[in-house]
Design goal:
Largest sheet: 8 strands, mixed
Order of helices and strands: EHHEEEHEEHEEHHEHHEHHEEHEHEEH
Number of helices: 13
Shape: elongated
CATH architecture of the largest domain: 3-Layer(aba) Sandwich
Number of strands: 15
CATH class of the largest domain: Alpha Beta
Strand content: 15-25%
Strand order of the largest sheet: 6-14-8-13-12-11-10-9
Number of domains: 3
Length: 421
């Protein structure tokens, strides 16, 4: 086997069909990192001329010519092939050392444990914990099976996913819980539509995220971040909004009101001739409740129209489409429109899109790894409502290529952080 430096095109050609392909090991993700000062290194292992393993390494200068190196979501390799893994890993570390790397980290896109939606290990499901000891023998330090979502630590170790392969769309909907189906149905009527944003319209999505961030207490990103994502990922990224046409929505409510009034008239005729008919009496009360609800919805919609105009944005979401999966990266809703449950419809429309276009996995992405009520923040229960399961990834592995220099770097950074604090 022969280690080689390869060009961008050769890497992406291999990455397109790699056994564990993922968007983090793609030229697009490398281009995104390059906008933040990182440098890309495409490397591979060849056997009889064919590439059998590859990686997009990124490096960042931290002290003169010395750098930190990463392989986002690990190598594109068959991790079960220990001989290949050992050869490629040794070659990668030698390459990093030759280019004045002081530290290397990777978080392989490898499922260590497949779990049900409540976090319990699935009997007979994927289990690959033995890879930890294999990598440790190669000199890596495993950073543990941590829980929690901390943005500064990188990508999440716990993901909530919905497998799509071999399922009919009707089955996907049926498997969701009753609340989720009801929330989807709310906006599956006249007056609600999906809108895909162009680059010059991304401020509309960013405004939703800004409002959601203030409400929920997380950090927001500038508009330039979403524009850069749009530029880098092109057709592999989608920004969707769900929008309400207030006039059309109110018209549908009025049509529904007419139907209920006709029902009420029929029930009232029965009651006029049979005043003690309990079933008709109960039916009348139900219709009156429905009419009151319709009147309330129309009043609320007209109030929103008065404030924002006829076209009212409810929610927005950002998705990445790559390889076998569609990934829900982020989303939000305006507080005033939360009752319309726009996020549910957005998720369902993208699940349907993914299913129709042959993707095998819908990835709701990060969750904390906590499944008890004490740590519940609503994010997990929202995702659980769509059915699905949990992928616990194997975690981060680190290698100190130049231990002394890395110790000096982390010490200096710690001092700097304390001064900032």
């Amino acid at each position: 086997m022969e280690f080689a430096i390869i060009d961008e095109h050769t890497f992406q050609t291999y990455a397109n069909t790699a056994i564990n392909r993922n968007v983090w090991q793609s030229t697009m993700m490398c281009h995104l990192r390059e906008t933040n000062g990182w440098h890309t290194h495409y490397v591979a292992m060849r056997e009889a001329g064919d590439i059998v393993a590859a990686a997009a390494l990124v490096s960042y200068p931290v002290c003169k010519d010395y750098c930190l190196f990463q392989a986002l979501r690990g190598f594109l390799i068959d991790y079960q092939n220990e001989k290949l893994l050992e050869c490629f890993s040794k070659a990668v570390i030698a390459y990093i050392k030759e280019r004045k790397g002081i530290h290397f980290s990777m978080d392989p896109y490898v499922i260590v444990q497949e779990r049900d939606k409540y976090g319990k290990a699935i009997e007979g499901g994927i289990h690959q914990e033995e890879l930890v000891s294999v990598l440790q023998k190669l000199g890596y330090t495993h950073q543990g099976f941590d829980v929690g979502v901390e943005e500064e630590k990188g990508e999440p170790r716990w993901m909530y996913v919905l497998p799509l392969s071999g399922k009919e769309e009707a089955t996907l909907l049926k498997d969701m819980n009753q609340l989720t189906r009801r929330c989807i149905k709310k906006t599956q009527r006249e007056g609600f539509s999906m809108v895909e944003l162009k680059r010059e319209e991304l401020h509309r999505f960013r405004d939703i995220i800004t409002q959601t961030a203030k409400r929920k207490g997380f950090s927001d990103r500038p508009l330039s971040y979403y524009e850069t994502m749009y530029d880098v990922f092109g057709s592999h990224i989608k920004y969707w909004l769900i929008v309400m046409d207030a006039d059309a929505y109110c018209h549908s409510l009025q049509e529904e009101k007419k139907k209920e009034e006709r029902k009420l008239a029929q029930v009232q005729e029965t009651l006029n001739s049979h005043p003690d008919h309990e079933k008709s009496y109960n039916k009348r009360n139900g219709i009156l409740d429905t009419l009151a609800s319709l009147a309330k919805k129309e009043k609320e919609a007209l109030a929103l129209k008065e404030r924002y105009g006829n076209e009212i944005v409810l929610s927005g979401a950002m998705f990445l489409l790559y390889g076998d999966e569609v990934i829900y990266l982020s989303g939000g809703s305006y507080e005033e429109t939360l009752s319309y449950s726009g996020q549910y419809r957005l998720q369902w429309e993208m699940i349907s899109y993914a299913h129709k276009h042959g993707y095998s996995l819908y990835n709701f992405y990060g969750i904390s790894g906590h499944f008890d009520e004490k740590h519940s923040d609503g994010v997990l229960s929202f995702k659980q409502g769509f059915s699905g399961e949990v992928y616990e990834l194997i975690g981060t592995f680190e290698r100190n290529v130049r231990p002394f220099l890395y110790h000096m770097y982390t010490s200096a950074r710690s001092i700097k952080d304390r001064w900032k604090g």
